[in-house]
Amino acid sequence: MKHFLVIILIALTAASAFGQSVVASTSWTGAFAQLAGADDVRVLAPFDMTHPPEYELRPSDLRAVSEADYVIYAGYETMVERLLATTGDSDAQAVQIVTVHAEPVLRRSVNAIASALGTETIAEQRLAELFSVMDEWRTEVREYGLDQDRVIAHFHQRALAEDLGMNVVGVFGPAPLEARQIDELSRLDPTLIIDNGHNPIATPLLETTSARVTTWYNFPGIGGTRTLGEIFERNRADLEAVVLSLD
Length: 247
What we know:
This protein is α/β, with parallel strands linked by helices. The protein has 2 domains: 126 residues, Nitrogenase molybdenum iron protein domain (Rossmann fold, 3-Layer(aba) Sandwich), CATH 3.40.50.1980; 113 residues, Rossmann fold (3-Layer(aba) Sandwich), CATH 3.40.50.1980. Helix content is 47%, strand content 15%. The strands form 2 sheets. It has a 4-stranded parallel sheet, with helices on both faces. The chain has a 4-stranded parallel sheet with strand order 6-5-7-8. It is globular and about 55 Å long.
């Protein structure tokens, strides 16, 4: 009987979001909205963009924003000024979140969206599922020895690497590497380099270190991904392939 009531409660919570129009600036903010319980999200920046924050809004996008109930954004997007001006002239509620792949930040951002949508119960369920995957990944990181080996990470991948328990001894980017930085990072003698697929810049380090490179992504779109869970699985698989190649 208890499980039946839980199912009913989740169904009612999901239903409360039905009919609400949710627009997200990019696939990343859209993935946070999906975690929060919004299953029908219009994403403005195309999924196949290499760097979605650079997307410029079109007239059709402005119409979608003005007709939306909720608009989810991060604040670093090129479109943000026009986005907020449009929501200010409409009934759309703008919800700003922090897009970082660290468990405490994930929870705060998803809960902020769920609070606006009234989907707190389904958000908690989806977060629990995602955090379970992250726990499994943390176990793998320890098994790989990356809690001890020296890892250097791209600035935009540092939070996830550290949250997974990696021994991050150096950070680079997001600007291209300069000669001094290449020298300093190489002296750290890393085993693994984590680059960012949206603006990869680690190549020069391959000439001065024996480290292997894994390339991670934040914005869903690569390989048909649409959710944070799928992005995590993609990054996790790439790390596994690189680690196995070290043996």
